[in-house]
Amino acid sequence: MAKKPIVEIDCIEVWRQISNYLDNEVDPDLRAVMASHFKDCAHCSAILDGTRNVVRLVGDGRSFEIPAGVSRRLYAKLDDHLATRRPKKRNS
Amino acid sequence: MATARVQPEVEADLIERVRCGEHEAFYELVRPHERGIYMAALSILNNDADAEEVVQEAILKAFKAIGKFRGEAKFSTWIIQITINEARMKLRKDRRHLYDSLDESRRGEDEGDYIPRDFADWREIPSEALESTRLREALKKALDSLAPKYRQVLVLRDIEHLNIAETAKLMGITEATVKTRLLRARLMMRDALAPGFDGAWRKGREYEKVRPF
Description:
The complex is a heterodimer.
Chain A: H1 11-22, H2 28-40, H3 42-59, H4 70-73, H5 76-91
Chain B: H1 8-19, H2 24-30, H3 34-45, H4 48-65, H5 75-94, H6 96-106, H7 133-145, H8 148-159, H9 164-171, H10 175-193
């Protein structure tokens, strides 16, 4: 049985691809090489965990909310517009 | 939940009702996207009052233009696009883009590799920690500290969960640039929030350590 070639990747290249790795935007070969690197490299593994944490935390709907009271005011201009339109409609 | 997922048929029905003159249906149509459009405006303007003003204008413009909405794009991306255009117009009007571009050049371009500041391990943050105001404030502070072009990509991709192609189209940049900026944005967020080697995350002082860029 042919031995799998051992392909190494350096940390800088891993950091370049770490976001694509999380988004499944790397090809399977590179993915396998990176996965193997993460097993052996505590630094890259920490960067991966931290970056994944960022994606998870910012993507959680509780992280960023519209300030209190703003939601109601977002329609102020539309309300004014409709208020001025309605009487005109009735007059026509 | 980020921008709410509304069944396409429900949305299509609401759009049709608005076109038929049932104006109240427009409020129902926009409500699930309030946070998305507000965050899109804020990512460009980085100021709550300006974002609010721009979103008010964008909602009015969307209402007036609803007859032109053909459904080639999702309603959410359509209204986000209107909001982004409004926000950029406001920047130009206020001539703030001049300062922003100076600011961006000081904070570095996307060329060149981004080297993480440290290798702190903060895998242990549970999502329940988001109940903490301090963590939410830390996230906001970290997001605010990013240069606008990184913040905008992060908001569209990771907060609004738009895909790479949608983000590229909305921002008028290539998909490759979206990926480059997203990488940098995520690594800078990690660096801004990472606890450092002192293990401060685990000692109760964790959220004080937001490092601005």
